[in-house]
Design brief:
The chain is an alpha+beta fold. The chain has two domains: 250 residues, P-loop containing nucleotide triphosphate hydrolases (Rossmann fold), CATH 3.40.50.300; 108 residues, Beta Barrel (OB fold (Dihydrolipoamide Acetyltransferase, E2P)), CATH 2.40.50.140. Helix content is 23%, strand content 32%. It is built from nine helices and 20 strands. A six-stranded mixed sheet has the order 6-7-8-3-9-10, sandwiched between helices. A hairpin with a 2-residue loop joins strand 9 and strand 10. The N terminus is likely disordered.
């Protein structure tokens, strides 16, 4: 058999190592204070301030070009801030008069493309960051890290012979083996297919919790951020827009753009009267808005609930049905609306196009913003 193995079969059989066996580190507190950096006339990050506590896992979330990776590179020492300071445990590592080089920051890095050395074996790749140790000791530490990610049996192979999921696991082992105080990860799961992504994310999170390293994960995927982060930092056009727990950002987005980033909504125009936002097919509470204020009502697809025929409800007709596995996605048209409502629900039977759809609106899935 040549080196190009049946990677699909390997992904199914190569189990991750035992939980609780990753070596722990002494985590550091990481701080950004009013950090700014521009490339030419284009601002990459602007006046960004935040702090990560020891052992905290934080996701930098936002669309491409919003400054996420630039912040990661500033933490790693690959870029220098033009204004502001970066600190670890209260000690300045980058600022107006101080710069600690990357190799002295005790920072682990995982890149989007894994960045494995093609001419080195898997064992040599993982041991690369342990050049200060004797060869036998470095290889022993590397084998322990490979055992934790379930790839110790492949230590003599080269990166080109591994699947994408296996290369990601090698990159994780290489990043944790020096026991970094801070772990920096730049879209590490984006190159994996959906079949593998959830499992690899779940296992990577377990490894990070075991090492206790303070961690920053850059991602543009809100589902990934909510599933992995203790706290999310939402970026937009180089600025930090909102920070909080995943639940806080999902339930209480700071503005309509932040809300749209986390969910596809039905968006309806409404006007407030006596604390109620009234729109074409119904009404929802709108506390805090004055009478006659024009607002946007955002309803998650999960908030459009089918009801029995004898219950009071709004009405429309089914125009399209899609089966999603554990739910149906249904479009409902109404003569009172310019575009269909999108509903998503677990149903015993598939709705039929053209049939009457009776539904209610769950206020727990409704957000109201000023127009």
């Amino acid at each position: 058999m040549d080196d190009a193995r049946d990677t699909e079969q390997t992904e199914q059989t190569a189990e991750w190592g035992p939980r609780g066996t990753a070596a722990a580190t002494f985590a550091a507190r990481l701080s950004f204070q009013d950090v700014s950096l521009s490339f030419g006339t284009v601002p990459a990050v602007r006046d960004v301030s935040f702090e990560l506590q020891q052992g905290e896992i934080v996701c930098l979330l936002g669309p491409s070009g919003c400054g996420k990776t630039t912040l990661l590179r500033l933490a790693a020492g690959v870029e220098l801030p033009q204004r502001g300071r970066v600190l670890m445990d209260g000690k300045e590592i980058a600022g107006p008069s101080v710069f600690v080089p990357p190799e002295k920051r005790n920072v682990g890095l995982m890149y989007q493309d894994f960045a494995l050395f093609p001419h080195l074996t898997i064992l040599e790749n993982v041991a690369f960051g342990l050049r200060g140790l004797k060869r036998d000791l470095a290889h022993a530490e590397a084998r322990n890290a490979l055992r934790r990610v379930g790839l110790d049996a492949l230590e003599g192979m080269y990166p080109h012979a591994l699947s994408g999921g296996e290369q990601q696991r090698v990159a994780l082992a290489r990043a944790i083996v020096p026991r970094p105080a801070v772990m920096l990860m730049d879209e590490p799961f984006s190159g994996l297919d959906q079949r593998l992504r959830d499992r690899v994310r779940h296992e990577t999170l377990a490894v990070l919790k075991e090492t206790r390293a303070t961690s920053i994960l850059v991602t543009h995927d809100p589902v990934e951020a909510m599933g992995m982060a203790d706290r999310i930092l939402l970026m937009r056009q180089g600025r930090l827009i909102q920070e909080g727990t995943p639940e806080q950002l999902y339930r209480e987005p700071i503005d309509i753009e932040a809300a749209r980033f986390f969910c596809d909504f039905n968006e309806l125009s409404a006007r407030v009267s006596d604390g109620i936002a009234e729109f074409a097919v119904g009404s929802v509470p709108a506390p805090g808005f004055a009478d006659n204020t024009d607002v946007k009502v955002l309803i998650r697809p999960e908030g459009i609930r089918p009801v029995r025929q004898n219950n009071p409800a709004y009405e429309g007709h089914v125009s399209e049905v899609r089966f999603l596995g554990n739910s149906y996605e249904v479009q409902i048209v109404s003569h009172a609306l310019d575009k269909p409502l999108l509903a998503r629900a677990s149903l015993r039977r598939a709705p039929v196009c053209g049939e009457l759809a009776r539904f209610s609106i769950d206020p727990d899935h409704v957000l109201v913003f000023a127009s």
